[in-house]
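Appendix B: a complete holo record

For completeness, this appendix reproduces one full record from the ligand-bound portion of the collection. The bound molecule is adenosine-5'-triphosphate. The inputs are the chain sequence and the ligand SMILES; the output is the full three-dimensional arrangement of the complex, encoded as C-alpha coordinates. No fields have been trimmed.
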Amino acid sequence: MRNLRAAAPASFLAPPAPPLLLPPSTPTPRGAFSAKASPAAAVAQAHGWCPSPRRVGRLRRRSGAASSSVASVEDAKKDVLVALSQIIDPDFGTDIVSCGFVKDLEISEALEEVSFRLELTTPACPIKDMFEEKANEVVAALPWVKKGGVGKSTVAVNLAYTLAGMGARVGIFDADVFGPSLPTMVSPENRLLVMNPESRSILPTEYLGVKMVSFGFAGQGRAIMRGPMVSGVINQLLTTTDWGELDYLVIDMPPGTGDIHLTLCQVVAPLTAAVIVTTPQKLAFIDVAKGVRMFSKLKVPCVAVVENMCYFDADGKRFYPFGQGSGAQARKVVQQFGIPHLFDLPIRPTLSASGDTGIPEVVADPQGDVAKTFQNLGVCVVQQCAKIRQQVSTAVSYDRSIRAIRVKVPDSDEEFLLHPATVRRNDRSAQSVDEWTGEQKVQYGDIPEDIEPEEIRPMGNYAVSITWPDGFSQIAPYDQLEMLERLVDVPRATTAAVSS
Ligand SMILES: Nc1ncnc2c1ncn2[C@@H]1O[C@H](COP(=O)(O)OP(=O)(O)OP(=O)(O)O)[C@@H](O)[C@H]1O
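The structure of the chain with adenosine-5'-triphosphate bound, as generated:
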Protein backbone atom coordinates (compact mmCIF):
# COMPACT_ATOMS: atom_id res chain seq x y z
CA MET A 1 0.00 0.00 0.00
CA ARG A 2 2.85 2.31 0.67
CA ASN A 3 4.20 1.43 -2.77
CA LEU A 4 0.94 2.42 -4.34
CA ARG A 5 1.06 5.67 -2.52
CA ALA A 6 4.60 6.30 -3.63
CA ALA A 7 3.76 5.45 -7.21
CA ALA A 8 0.84 7.81 -7.37
CA PRO A 9 1.26 10.93 -9.45
CA ALA A 10 2.25 13.92 -7.37
CA SER A 11 -0.64 15.88 -8.78
CA PHE A 12 -3.05 13.60 -6.98
CA LEU A 13 -1.12 13.19 -3.80
CA ALA A 14 -0.61 16.83 -3.19
CA PRO A 15 -3.76 18.63 -4.19
CA PRO A 16 -3.79 22.12 -2.76
CA ALA A 17 -6.98 21.43 -0.91
CA PRO A 18 -8.47 18.35 0.57
CA PRO A 19 -10.46 15.71 -1.19
CA LEU A 20 -14.02 15.44 -0.07
CA LEU A 21 -15.87 12.27 0.46
CA LEU A 22 -19.42 11.69 -0.56
CA PRO A 23 -20.32 8.77 1.59
CA PRO A 24 -22.70 5.89 1.69
CA SER A 25 -26.22 6.21 2.70
CA THR A 26 -29.04 4.50 4.38
CA PRO A 27 -31.50 2.20 2.66
CA THR A 28 -33.38 2.62 -0.50
CA PRO A 29 -36.52 4.67 -0.94
CA ARG A 30 -38.43 1.64 -2.10
CA GLY A 31 -37.74 -0.44 0.94
CA ALA A 32 -35.68 -2.89 -1.00
CA PHE A 33 -32.02 -3.23 -0.46
CA SER A 34 -29.85 -1.29 -2.80
CA ALA A 35 -28.81 -3.41 -5.67
CA LYS A 36 -25.29 -2.21 -5.69
CA ALA A 37 -23.83 -3.22 -2.39
CA SER A 38 -24.55 -3.21 1.29
CA PRO A 39 -26.97 -0.66 2.59
CA ALA A 40 -26.75 0.16 6.23
CA ALA A 41 -30.24 -1.17 6.83
CA ALA A 42 -29.29 -4.70 6.02
CA VAL A 43 -26.17 -4.44 8.07
CA ALA A 44 -28.10 -3.15 11.00
CA GLN A 45 -30.37 -6.15 10.96
CA ALA A 46 -27.60 -8.67 10.81
CA HIS A 47 -27.75 -10.32 14.19
CA GLY A 48 -26.33 -13.77 14.46
CA TRP A 49 -24.79 -14.25 11.08
CA CYS A 50 -22.11 -16.78 11.57
CA PRO A 51 -21.13 -20.01 9.94
CA SER A 52 -20.24 -21.81 13.10
CA PRO A 53 -22.02 -24.98 14.21
CA ARG A 54 -24.57 -23.46 16.60
CA ARG A 55 -27.80 -22.39 14.94
CA VAL A 56 -29.06 -19.13 16.18
CA GLY A 57 -29.40 -16.25 13.81
CA ARG A 58 -31.84 -15.67 11.04
CA LEU A 59 -31.76 -12.81 8.67
CA ARG A 60 -34.15 -11.77 6.00
CA ARG A 61 -32.58 -10.03 3.11
CA ARG A 62 -34.37 -8.14 0.42
CA SER A 63 -33.23 -6.81 -2.82
CA GLY A 64 -34.97 -4.79 -5.48
CA ALA A 65 -35.38 -6.83 -8.60
CA ALA A 66 -36.44 -5.79 -12.05
CA SER A 67 -37.77 -8.89 -13.64
CA SER A 68 -37.80 -7.62 -17.19
CA SER A 69 -34.57 -9.23 -18.29
CA VAL A 70 -34.99 -12.45 -16.33
CA ALA A 71 -36.68 -15.27 -18.17
CA SER A 72 -38.49 -16.65 -15.12
CA VAL A 73 -38.53 -16.54 -11.38
CA GLU A 74 -36.80 -19.93 -11.35
CA ASP A 75 -33.99 -18.56 -13.55
CA ALA A 76 -33.71 -15.59 -11.27
CA LYS A 77 -33.45 -17.89 -8.23
CA LYS A 78 -30.70 -19.84 -9.97
CA ASP A 79 -28.90 -16.56 -10.65
CA VAL A 80 -29.07 -15.63 -7.00
CA LEU A 81 -27.83 -19.04 -5.85
CA VAL A 82 -24.96 -19.03 -8.33
CA ALA A 83 -24.04 -15.55 -7.16
CA LEU A 84 -24.19 -16.55 -3.49
CA SER A 85 -22.16 -19.67 -4.14
CA GLN A 86 -19.18 -17.42 -4.76
CA ILE A 87 -19.06 -16.87 -1.02
CA ILE A 88 -16.88 -19.44 0.64
CA ASP A 89 -17.13 -20.21 4.32
CA PRO A 90 -13.51 -20.08 5.47
CA ASP A 91 -14.15 -22.57 8.27
CA PHE A 92 -15.74 -25.25 6.10
CA GLY A 93 -13.95 -24.38 2.85
CA THR A 94 -17.29 -24.70 1.06
CA ASP A 95 -19.61 -22.12 -0.40
CA ILE A 96 -22.56 -20.93 1.66
CA VAL A 97 -25.12 -22.41 -0.73
CA SER A 98 -23.58 -25.89 -0.48
CA CYS A 99 -23.36 -25.41 3.27
CA GLY A 100 -27.15 -25.01 3.22
CA PHE A 101 -27.13 -21.57 4.79
CA VAL A 102 -29.42 -20.00 2.19
CA LYS A 103 -33.07 -20.58 3.08
CA ASP A 104 -36.47 -19.49 1.80
CA LEU A 105 -35.24 -17.84 -1.35
CA GLU A 106 -38.18 -16.03 -2.88
CA ILE A 107 -38.53 -13.65 -5.74
CA SER A 108 -41.75 -11.76 -5.83
CA GLU A 109 -42.30 -10.21 -9.20
CA ALA A 110 -45.15 -8.11 -7.91
CA LEU A 111 -43.08 -6.66 -5.13
CA GLU A 112 -39.90 -6.69 -7.17
CA GLU A 113 -38.10 -8.20 -4.25
CA VAL A 114 -35.58 -10.91 -3.74
CA SER A 115 -35.67 -12.29 -0.26
CA PHE A 116 -33.90 -15.08 1.51
CA ARG A 117 -32.64 -15.95 4.91
CA LEU A 118 -29.12 -16.88 5.74
CA GLU A 119 -29.58 -19.39 8.48
CA LEU A 120 -26.34 -19.02 10.23
CA THR A 121 -25.35 -19.66 13.70
CA THR A 122 -24.00 -17.84 16.63
CA PRO A 123 -24.17 -14.10 17.08
CA ALA A 124 -21.05 -11.98 17.46
CA CYS A 125 -19.15 -13.89 14.83
CA PRO A 126 -16.19 -11.87 13.63
CA ILE A 127 -16.83 -12.64 9.97
CA LYS A 128 -20.55 -12.00 9.91
CA ASP A 129 -19.94 -8.58 8.40
CA MET A 130 -17.86 -10.16 5.69
CA PHE A 131 -20.75 -12.50 4.83
CA GLU A 132 -23.11 -9.58 4.94
CA GLU A 133 -21.04 -7.49 2.62
CA LYS A 134 -20.26 -10.28 0.17
CA ALA A 135 -23.88 -11.36 -0.06
CA ASN A 136 -24.84 -7.79 -0.81
CA GLU A 137 -22.11 -7.44 -3.37
CA VAL A 138 -22.78 -10.60 -5.31
CA VAL A 139 -26.56 -10.25 -5.40
CA ALA A 140 -26.21 -6.59 -6.24
CA ALA A 141 -23.95 -7.40 -9.16
CA LEU A 142 -26.67 -9.42 -10.89
CA PRO A 143 -27.54 -7.43 -13.99
CA TRP A 144 -31.30 -7.67 -13.46
CA VAL A 145 -31.28 -6.43 -9.90
CA LYS A 146 -32.75 -2.98 -9.92
CA LYS A 147 -30.99 -0.02 -8.38
CA GLY A 148 -32.57 1.60 -5.40
CA GLY A 149 -30.46 4.60 -4.57
CA VAL A 150 -31.16 7.28 -2.04
CA GLY A 151 -29.55 9.94 -4.20
CA LYS A 152 -25.86 9.79 -3.34
CA SER A 153 -24.78 10.25 -6.93
CA THR A 154 -27.32 13.02 -7.46
CA VAL A 155 -25.98 14.85 -4.42
CA ALA A 156 -22.34 14.15 -5.30
CA VAL A 157 -22.68 15.47 -8.83
CA ASN A 158 -24.69 18.56 -7.89
CA LEU A 159 -22.37 19.35 -5.03
CA ALA A 160 -19.38 19.05 -7.35
CA TYR A 161 -20.91 21.48 -9.84
CA THR A 162 -21.88 23.83 -7.03
CA LEU A 163 -18.28 23.89 -5.80
CA ALA A 164 -17.11 24.44 -9.37
CA GLY A 165 -19.62 27.29 -9.68
CA MET A 166 -18.05 28.82 -6.58
CA GLY A 167 -14.76 28.95 -8.44
CA ALA A 168 -13.07 25.79 -7.18
CA ARG A 169 -11.23 23.24 -9.31
CA VAL A 170 -13.24 20.10 -8.83
CA GLY A 171 -13.03 16.43 -9.71
CA ILE A 172 -15.59 13.66 -9.21
CA PHE A 173 -14.55 10.08 -8.62
CA ASP A 174 -17.34 7.55 -9.00
CA ALA A 175 -16.18 4.76 -6.72
CA ASP A 176 -19.07 2.46 -7.53
CA VAL A 177 -17.69 -0.13 -9.90
CA PHE A 178 -20.80 -2.34 -9.62
CA GLY A 179 -23.07 0.20 -11.19
CA PRO A 180 -21.41 3.51 -11.91
CA SER A 181 -23.95 6.34 -12.03
CA LEU A 182 -21.76 9.12 -13.35
CA PRO A 183 -22.12 8.21 -17.04
CA THR A 184 -25.89 8.66 -16.81
CA MET A 185 -25.70 11.85 -14.78
CA VAL A 186 -23.38 13.87 -16.97
CA SER A 187 -22.80 13.82 -20.68
CA PRO A 188 -19.19 14.60 -21.48
CA GLU A 189 -18.22 14.64 -25.13
CA ASN A 190 -15.48 12.12 -24.47
CA ARG A 191 -17.06 9.13 -22.75
CA LEU A 192 -13.90 7.06 -22.56
CA LEU A 193 -10.98 7.58 -20.26
CA VAL A 194 -7.69 8.03 -22.09
CA MET A 195 -4.31 6.75 -20.96
CA ASN A 196 -1.34 9.04 -21.48
CA PRO A 197 1.11 6.63 -23.17
CA GLU A 198 4.20 8.41 -21.86
CA SER A 199 3.32 8.89 -18.21
CA ARG A 200 0.96 5.88 -18.25
CA SER A 201 -1.50 7.90 -16.24
CA ILE A 202 -5.24 8.05 -16.82
CA LEU A 203 -6.58 11.35 -18.04
CA PRO A 204 -9.98 12.16 -16.54
CA THR A 205 -12.77 13.08 -18.85
CA GLU A 206 -14.29 16.50 -18.37
CA TYR A 207 -17.75 18.03 -18.52
CA LEU A 208 -18.47 21.72 -18.03
CA GLY A 209 -15.16 22.23 -16.27
CA VAL A 210 -15.42 19.34 -13.80
CA LYS A 211 -13.00 16.45 -14.20
CA MET A 212 -14.36 13.00 -13.73
CA VAL A 213 -13.34 9.38 -13.51
CA SER A 214 -15.74 6.48 -13.38
CA PHE A 215 -15.47 2.80 -14.11
CA GLY A 216 -18.37 3.52 -16.46
CA PHE A 217 -15.99 5.55 -18.61
CA ALA A 218 -13.48 2.70 -18.74
CA GLY A 219 -15.33 0.94 -21.53
CA GLN A 220 -16.01 -2.10 -19.37
CA GLY A 221 -19.68 -1.68 -18.56
CA ARG A 222 -20.97 -3.10 -15.31
CA ALA A 223 -18.40 -5.08 -13.44
CA ILE A 224 -18.89 -8.39 -11.75
CA MET A 225 -16.02 -8.60 -9.38
CA ARG A 226 -15.06 -9.88 -5.99
CA GLY A 227 -14.11 -7.53 -3.16
CA PRO A 228 -10.30 -7.55 -3.55
CA MET A 229 -10.62 -6.95 -7.29
CA VAL A 230 -12.87 -4.00 -6.62
CA SER A 231 -10.38 -2.45 -4.22
CA GLY A 232 -7.66 -3.06 -6.82
CA VAL A 233 -9.62 -1.35 -9.58
CA ILE A 234 -10.43 1.60 -7.34
CA ASN A 235 -6.79 1.86 -6.28
CA GLN A 236 -5.68 1.78 -9.86
CA LEU A 237 -8.20 4.30 -11.12
CA LEU A 238 -7.54 6.73 -8.32
CA THR A 239 -3.80 6.47 -8.03
CA THR A 240 -2.99 6.45 -11.71
CA THR A 241 -5.27 9.32 -12.62
CA ASP A 242 -3.58 12.57 -13.39
CA TRP A 243 -6.10 14.95 -11.83
CA GLY A 244 -3.93 17.99 -12.29
CA GLU A 245 -4.50 20.74 -9.76
CA LEU A 246 -7.70 20.20 -7.79
CA ASP A 247 -9.26 22.03 -4.89
CA TYR A 248 -11.83 19.34 -4.15
CA LEU A 249 -12.24 15.75 -5.17
CA VAL A 250 -15.79 14.58 -4.56
CA ILE A 251 -15.96 10.82 -4.18
CA ASP A 252 -19.30 9.15 -4.81
CA MET A 253 -18.97 6.16 -2.51
CA PRO A 254 -20.72 2.85 -2.99
CA PRO A 255 -23.25 2.04 -0.28
CA GLY A 256 -22.14 0.14 2.76
CA THR A 257 -19.30 0.14 5.22
CA GLY A 258 -16.84 -2.38 3.89
CA ASP A 259 -13.25 -2.80 2.72
CA ILE A 260 -13.74 -0.50 -0.23
CA HIS A 261 -14.55 2.35 2.12
CA LEU A 262 -11.52 1.62 4.22
CA THR A 263 -9.34 1.58 1.13
CA LEU A 264 -10.76 4.85 -0.04
CA CYS A 265 -10.71 6.60 3.31
CA GLN A 266 -7.22 5.71 4.35
CA VAL A 267 -5.12 4.19 1.67
CA VAL A 268 -5.94 5.74 -1.62
CA ALA A 269 -7.13 9.16 -0.73
CA PRO A 270 -6.89 10.44 2.80
CA LEU A 271 -10.26 12.10 3.01
CA THR A 272 -11.14 15.34 4.67
CA ALA A 273 -14.86 15.14 5.28
CA ALA A 274 -17.96 13.09 4.64
CA VAL A 275 -21.52 14.06 3.74
CA ILE A 276 -24.18 11.51 4.64
CA VAL A 277 -27.05 11.14 2.18
CA THR A 278 -30.26 9.55 3.31
CA THR A 279 -33.99 9.54 2.70
CA PRO A 280 -36.68 10.28 5.28
CA GLN A 281 -38.72 7.13 5.19
CA LYS A 282 -35.74 4.99 5.96
CA LEU A 283 -33.91 7.34 8.18
CA ALA A 284 -33.40 4.66 10.75
CA PHE A 285 -31.18 5.99 13.44
CA ILE A 286 -29.06 2.90 13.45
CA ASP A 287 -28.32 3.09 9.74
CA VAL A 288 -26.96 6.59 9.83
CA ALA A 289 -25.19 5.69 13.04
CA LYS A 290 -23.40 2.88 11.25
CA GLY A 291 -22.15 5.25 8.56
CA VAL A 292 -21.13 7.92 11.05
CA ARG A 293 -19.34 5.35 13.18
CA MET A 294 -17.44 3.99 10.19
CA PHE A 295 -16.26 7.44 9.22
CA SER A 296 -15.46 8.31 12.78
CA LYS A 297 -13.34 5.16 13.05
CA LEU A 298 -11.55 6.20 9.91
CA LYS A 299 -11.14 9.71 11.30
CA VAL A 300 -13.26 11.27 8.59
CA PRO A 301 -15.63 13.80 10.16
CA CYS A 302 -19.21 13.85 8.88
CA VAL A 303 -19.94 17.49 8.23
CA ALA A 304 -23.51 17.34 6.93
CA VAL A 305 -26.53 15.12 6.48
CA VAL A 306 -28.57 15.54 3.30
CA GLU A 307 -32.07 14.25 3.64
CA ASN A 308 -33.14 13.65 0.07
CA MET A 309 -36.69 13.33 -1.29
CA CYS A 310 -38.33 14.89 1.78
CA TYR A 311 -41.32 16.54 0.13
CA PHE A 312 -42.81 17.67 -3.16
CA ASP A 313 -44.85 20.67 -4.20
CA ALA A 314 -48.01 20.28 -6.24
CA ASP A 315 -51.08 22.46 -6.80
CA GLY A 316 -49.52 25.17 -4.70
CA LYS A 317 -49.22 22.88 -1.69
CA ARG A 318 -46.32 21.06 -0.09
CA PHE A 319 -46.70 17.32 0.48
CA TYR A 320 -44.62 15.17 2.79
CA PRO A 321 -45.11 11.65 1.50
CA PHE A 322 -43.06 10.19 4.33
CA GLY A 323 -44.55 12.37 7.01
CA GLN A 324 -43.42 15.71 8.33
CA GLY A 325 -42.02 14.06 11.42
CA SER A 326 -39.12 12.59 9.52
CA GLY A 327 -37.34 15.93 9.60
CA ALA A 328 -37.37 15.83 13.38
CA GLN A 329 -35.75 12.44 13.21
CA ALA A 330 -33.04 13.80 10.95
CA ARG A 331 -32.46 16.65 13.38
CA LYS A 332 -32.02 14.05 16.11
CA VAL A 333 -29.26 12.48 14.03
CA VAL A 334 -27.62 15.83 13.60
CA GLN A 335 -27.80 16.55 17.33
CA GLN A 336 -26.85 13.15 18.65
CA PHE A 337 -23.87 12.68 16.39
CA GLY A 338 -22.78 16.28 16.50
CA ILE A 339 -23.05 16.63 12.74
CA PRO A 340 -23.29 20.35 12.32
CA HIS A 341 -25.65 20.70 9.37
CA LEU A 342 -28.79 19.20 7.89
CA PHE A 343 -30.08 19.93 4.40
CA ASP A 344 -33.41 18.93 2.88
CA LEU A 345 -33.95 18.20 -0.77
CA PRO A 346 -37.37 17.82 -2.37
CA ILE A 347 -38.58 15.14 -4.73
CA ARG A 348 -38.34 17.00 -7.98
CA PRO A 349 -38.95 15.55 -11.44
CA THR A 350 -36.29 17.85 -12.84
CA LEU A 351 -33.77 16.53 -10.34
CA SER A 352 -34.53 13.04 -11.50
CA ALA A 353 -34.74 14.00 -15.16
CA SER A 354 -31.54 15.96 -15.07
CA GLY A 355 -29.95 13.08 -13.26
CA ASP A 356 -30.83 10.86 -16.14
CA THR A 357 -30.24 13.24 -19.03
CA GLY A 358 -26.78 14.42 -18.30
CA ILE A 359 -27.19 17.99 -17.06
CA PRO A 360 -26.95 18.44 -13.31
CA GLU A 361 -29.87 20.37 -11.83
CA VAL A 362 -27.64 23.11 -10.38
CA VAL A 363 -26.33 23.77 -13.88
CA ALA A 364 -29.70 23.53 -15.61
CA ASP A 365 -31.46 25.81 -13.12
CA PRO A 366 -28.83 27.77 -11.20
CA GLN A 367 -31.42 30.14 -9.67
CA GLY A 368 -33.82 27.42 -8.54
CA ASP A 369 -34.40 26.44 -4.91
CA VAL A 370 -32.58 23.13 -5.36
CA ALA A 371 -29.53 25.07 -6.53
CA LYS A 372 -29.93 27.32 -3.46
CA THR A 373 -29.90 24.31 -1.16
CA PHE A 374 -26.77 23.03 -2.88
CA GLN A 375 -25.23 26.47 -2.58
CA ASN A 376 -25.77 26.29 1.18
CA LEU A 377 -24.38 22.77 1.26
CA GLY A 378 -21.39 23.91 -0.80
CA VAL A 379 -20.66 26.78 1.58
CA CYS A 380 -20.98 24.40 4.53
CA VAL A 381 -18.59 21.90 2.94
CA VAL A 382 -16.04 24.56 2.05
CA GLN A 383 -16.12 26.05 5.55
CA GLN A 384 -16.00 22.73 7.33
CA CYS A 385 -13.16 21.44 5.16
CA ALA A 386 -11.19 24.60 5.82
CA LYS A 387 -11.79 24.24 9.56
CA ILE A 388 -10.77 20.59 9.52
CA ARG A 389 -7.65 21.33 7.54
CA GLN A 390 -6.72 24.07 9.93
CA GLN A 391 -7.20 21.75 12.91
CA VAL A 392 -5.28 18.96 11.23
CA SER A 393 -2.43 21.16 10.14
CA THR A 394 -1.81 22.30 13.69
CA ALA A 395 -2.62 19.02 15.42
CA VAL A 396 0.94 17.75 15.57
CA SER A 397 3.92 20.06 15.52
CA TYR A 398 7.48 20.16 16.71
CA ASP A 399 8.27 22.74 19.34
CA ARG A 400 11.96 23.37 19.00
CA SER A 401 12.11 25.55 22.09
CA ILE A 402 11.35 22.61 24.34
CA ARG A 403 12.44 19.83 21.95
CA ALA A 404 9.08 18.16 22.12
CA ILE A 405 6.41 17.04 19.70
CA ARG A 406 3.20 18.81 20.63
CA VAL A 407 -0.07 16.96 19.96
CA LYS A 408 -3.40 18.79 20.07
CA VAL A 409 -6.21 16.32 19.81
CA PRO A 410 -8.63 17.66 17.18
CA ASP A 411 -12.04 18.74 18.50
CA SER A 412 -10.85 18.57 22.07
CA ASP A 413 -8.91 20.70 24.52
CA GLU A 414 -6.49 17.89 25.15
CA GLU A 415 -2.86 18.63 24.41
CA PHE A 416 0.26 16.65 25.29
CA LEU A 417 3.95 16.51 24.59
CA LEU A 418 6.05 13.65 23.31
CA HIS A 419 9.79 13.08 23.25
CA PRO A 420 10.84 12.86 19.57
CA ALA A 421 13.05 9.82 20.18
CA THR A 422 10.10 8.01 21.80
CA VAL A 423 7.99 8.68 18.73
CA ARG A 424 10.68 7.40 16.38
CA ARG A 425 11.42 4.35 18.52
CA ASN A 426 7.76 3.41 18.50
CA ASP A 427 7.43 3.36 14.74
CA ARG A 428 5.40 0.27 13.85
CA SER A 429 6.23 0.12 10.13
CA ALA A 430 7.90 -2.85 8.44
CA GLN A 431 11.22 -1.00 8.56
CA SER A 432 11.09 -0.99 12.34
CA VAL A 433 9.12 -4.10 13.25
CA ASP A 434 9.14 -7.50 11.53
CA GLU A 435 5.63 -7.88 10.14
CA TRP A 436 5.55 -11.65 10.70
CA THR A 437 7.31 -12.14 13.98
CA GLY A 438 6.61 -8.77 15.58
CA GLU A 439 10.28 -8.60 16.43
CA GLN A 440 11.67 -5.11 16.89
CA LYS A 441 14.19 -4.41 14.11
CA VAL A 442 15.17 -0.94 15.23
CA GLN A 443 16.76 -1.15 18.64
CA TYR A 444 16.44 1.46 21.34
CA GLY A 445 20.06 2.54 21.00
CA ASP A 446 19.79 2.91 17.22
CA ILE A 447 17.85 6.12 17.69
CA PRO A 448 19.83 9.02 19.12
CA GLU A 449 18.27 10.52 22.22
CA ASP A 450 18.43 14.00 20.73
CA ILE A 451 16.87 13.16 17.36
CA GLU A 452 14.61 15.92 16.01
CA PRO A 453 12.02 15.71 13.25
CA GLU A 454 12.71 17.64 10.08
CA GLU A 455 9.13 17.93 8.91
CA ILE A 456 5.68 16.94 10.14
CA ARG A 457 2.86 16.80 7.61
CA PRO A 458 -0.77 15.76 8.13
CA MET A 459 -2.01 12.69 6.27
CA GLY A 460 -5.74 12.94 5.99
CA ASN A 461 -7.33 13.29 9.39
CA TYR A 462 -5.86 10.20 10.95
CA ALA A 463 -2.10 10.38 10.86
CA VAL A 464 0.96 12.52 10.35
CA SER A 465 3.98 11.81 8.27
CA ILE A 466 7.20 12.64 10.12
CA THR A 467 10.45 13.01 8.18
CA TRP A 468 13.59 12.36 10.19
CA PRO A 469 17.16 13.56 9.46
CA ASP A 470 18.21 10.11 8.18
CA GLY A 471 15.53 10.40 5.49
CA PHE A 472 13.14 7.97 7.16
CA SER A 473 9.52 8.90 6.70
CA GLN A 474 7.36 7.67 9.56
CA ILE A 475 3.60 7.42 9.34
CA ALA A 476 2.28 8.03 12.83
CA PRO A 477 -1.47 7.60 13.34
CA TYR A 478 -2.97 9.85 16.02
CA ASP A 479 -4.24 6.77 17.85
CA GLN A 480 -0.68 5.54 18.14
CA LEU A 481 0.64 8.88 19.33
CA GLU A 482 -2.03 8.94 22.01
CA MET A 483 -0.72 5.64 23.38
CA LEU A 484 2.88 6.78 23.79
CA GLU A 485 4.51 7.77 27.02
CA ARG A 486 4.03 11.50 27.45
CA LEU A 487 6.50 14.10 28.57
CA VAL A 488 5.69 15.68 31.88
CA ASP A 489 7.32 18.57 33.72
CA VAL A 490 8.21 20.29 30.48
CA PRO A 491 7.97 24.06 30.61
CA ARG A 492 5.07 25.42 28.58
CA ALA A 493 6.47 26.78 25.34
CA THR A 494 5.90 30.29 24.26
CA THR A 495 7.43 30.08 20.80
CA ALA A 496 5.43 29.04 17.80
CA ALA A 497 5.60 25.56 16.40
CA VAL A 498 8.14 25.11 13.66
CA SER A 499 6.47 22.64 11.40
CA SER A 500 3.11 21.06 11.12
N1 LIG B 1 -34.67 14.48 -5.01
C1 LIG B 1 -34.93 13.70 -6.05
N2 LIG B 1 -36.07 13.85 -6.77
C2 LIG B 1 -36.34 13.04 -7.81
N3 LIG B 1 -35.53 12.05 -8.22
C3 LIG B 1 -34.38 11.85 -7.55
C4 LIG B 1 -34.02 12.65 -6.44
N4 LIG B 1 -32.81 12.22 -5.98
C5 LIG B 1 -32.44 11.19 -6.76
N5 LIG B 1 -33.38 10.97 -7.72
C6 LIG B 1 -33.36 9.93 -8.75
O1 LIG B 1 -33.32 8.66 -8.07
C7 LIG B 1 -32.48 7.76 -8.78
C8 LIG B 1 -31.40 7.26 -7.81
O2 LIG B 1 -30.58 8.35 -7.46
P1 LIG B 1 -29.00 8.19 -7.38
O3 LIG B 1 -28.48 7.39 -8.51
O4 LIG B 1 -28.44 9.54 -7.13
O5 LIG B 1 -28.91 7.33 -6.05
P2 LIG B 1 -27.66 6.56 -5.46
O6 LIG B 1 -27.84 6.59 -3.98
O7 LIG B 1 -26.40 7.09 -6.00
O8 LIG B 1 -27.98 5.15 -6.04
P3 LIG B 1 -27.03 3.94 -6.23
O9 LIG B 1 -26.51 3.54 -4.89
O10 LIG B 1 -27.93 2.94 -6.84
O11 LIG B 1 -25.94 4.45 -7.14
C9 LIG B 1 -31.94 8.52 -9.98
O12 LIG B 1 -32.71 8.25 -11.11
C10 LIG B 1 -32.10 9.98 -9.60
O13 LIG B 1 -32.25 10.83 -10.72
